[in-house]
Amino acid sequence: MRRLYLCFALLVAAQVIAGVPKLSRGEIDRRRAALVDSLAARLGGTTPFTRDSLERIFADPRSAFDAAIFEPRPEQTFTFLFGDSSVERGRTFLREHRAVLEHVAKAFRHVTPELLVALLRIESNFGEYLGEHRVLRVLYTRYLVTPPRERKRVSLRVRELVCFLSLCREEEWDPFAVVGSWAGAIGLPQFMPCSFAFVWDGDGAGEIDLAGSVPDAAWSIGNFLWEHGAWQKDGVRRAVWRYCSKSDAYVGAAFRYATLLTEPKRTRSSSVSGSRNER
Description:
This protein is 53% helix and 1% strand. Helix 5 (98-107) packs across helix 6 (113-124) and helix 10 crosses helix 11 (248-260). It has a two-stranded antiparallel sheet with strand order 1-2. It has helices spanning 2-18, 25-43, 51-59, 84-96, 98-107, 113-124, 135-144, 151-171, 214-230, 236-243, 248-260, and strands at residues 133-134, 179-180. The longest helix is centred in the middle third of the chain and has 21 residues, at 151-171. By secondary structure, the protein is mainly α. The chain is globular.
């Protein structure tokens, strides 16, 4: 009982700090109960995610509301990508991993090595930023603050939790230990849990390691883009648009960066560089 009160106190405090919609304890209890019902039905109520275990998971303080994901962030302009230092880092990454990237590009026609580098640069700065939020907390927080009347968005929130917990069961992950971005994205390519349907064992290790394996990340991105239309020459941009949650600015920046990687080295000094998540 003390644990439940702690969760509730943390939630209320976080809402005040973050300025997100305030929820009464009754509302939280109702939404949590509805979530447990839905997850238990979709996960089959089997070990390790029985109804009782799901109730314990979402009552655990480690699942408590994550206020940090609502901190104000500056509008993303992607200008940090185009400085000389940033472009040179992309060229270096391209040289170091050219064999893998070209192999992926050959398998997934219209997906170029430069585009793969651009996406890895934007998403995780080539692995320098993998996130620091507990993915379970992020996904649960986003579910809680989504109004029940917005049924489509609620369904999407539940679906990501189903995908995440299914991954935990299949990969034997501790659901409280997996970290990712403020959106709940994971690894070098920053895949949301449901995007793991497109992962690929690129290095042949017998397991998928999106956090540490460039081949796994590159092949997984290539497969995602291909399955979302990149098999058509005019479908690549739309596939990237789907990859980045439908941001036209992101798509333009990714293709511009990919183009810069093919141009002769510039001599002017770099004025802007850094990771997507630092700006």
